[in-house]
Amino acid sequence: YLKSQQKGCEEVGIEFQLEQMAKETTEQELIRFIEEKNKDERISGIILQMPLPPQINAERVQAVIDPAKDVEGVNPENMGMLVYGKPKLAPCTALSVMELIKSTGTSIKGLQVTVVGHSSIVGKPLALLLLSSPFESATTTVCHIATRDLASHTRKADILIVAVGKAGLIKGEMIKEDAIVIDVGVNQVEGKIVGDVVFEEAKEKASLITPVPGGVGPVTTAMLLRNTIQAWKIGLGILVGSEQSKLTSL
């Protein structure tokens, strides 16, 4: 993901800087470092790479990132704007899923969309994006580790989105005929990168399906670049309402 970020920035003309700190860095030291970047007018966007050392609480640090420079869309203020359906900068992976749905030409209005996984950076914000329009929203179900009879929910889905991080979780028999399947999971199994969906089985049932790797990942990088441009516009005070609404009209 880091390499693709750098390559993407180079391709579109965004200056990319990788700041590496010692693993012994304290939480307060990292916070002070980010606060300095918040004040630097030359910087339009800040992203905190994961994972972090155990002595650092990621959520506390993410909350320090200036919401106007939070190109990953994880600051509490940006997350909160999702609830109102007026996000300025939303989580990149959730945006990438919406963009993939849009690319199929399928309207989500009234469709049964099932999201498997309720993480703060994918499942929850994605559910809010799917519900962002009062008249064009999907009928959205969010499943998670405590869900009983997962297959009963996935088999009803016109669009099935899986973002858990468990290889082989969704088998072909759990997918509705002609459903759209978007696999966000990334897992390493016997030296290979695979998703949460058993691809060979699922492709026999699905009308469209994203591969892993090469599916959601590249689009997520593109959404990060788009967020960076949005952040630059916010910094210049030229982000107009119609551009903000694009995030919720996918």
Key descriptive features of the protein:
globular; alpha/beta; 10% strand; 250 residues
Protein described:
The chain is α/β, with parallel strands linked by helices and 250 residues long. It has helices at residues 2-12, 27-39, 58-62, 76-83, 92-103, 123-130, 150-154, 199-202, 216-236, 241-245; strands at 112-116, 139-143, 159-162, 180-183, 187-189, 192-194, 208-209. The chain has a five-stranded parallel β-sheet with strand order 2-1-3-4-7. The mean pLDDT is 93.
Strand order across the largest sheet: 2-1-3-4-7
Beta-strand content estimate: 5-15%
Q: With helices defined by DSSP (H or I, 4 residues minimum), what is the helix count?
A: 10
Please tally the β strands and state the result. Answer: 7
Largest sheet: 5 strands, parallel
> If you compute it from the alpha carbons, what radius of gyration comes out, rounded to the nearest whole angstrom?
19 Å
Low-pLDDT ranges: none
- Structural class by SSE content: alpha/beta
Distance between the termini: 24 Å
Strand and helix order = HHHHHEHEHEEEEHEHH
Mean pLDDT across the residues is: 93
Query: Approximately how much helix is present in the residues?
Result: 25-40%
Described by the principal axes of the CA atoms, the overall outline is: globular
Brief summary:
The chain has 250 residues and is of the alpha/beta class. The protein is built from ten helices and seven strands. The chain has a five-stranded parallel β-sheet. The protein has a two-stranded antiparallel ribbon with strand order 5-6.
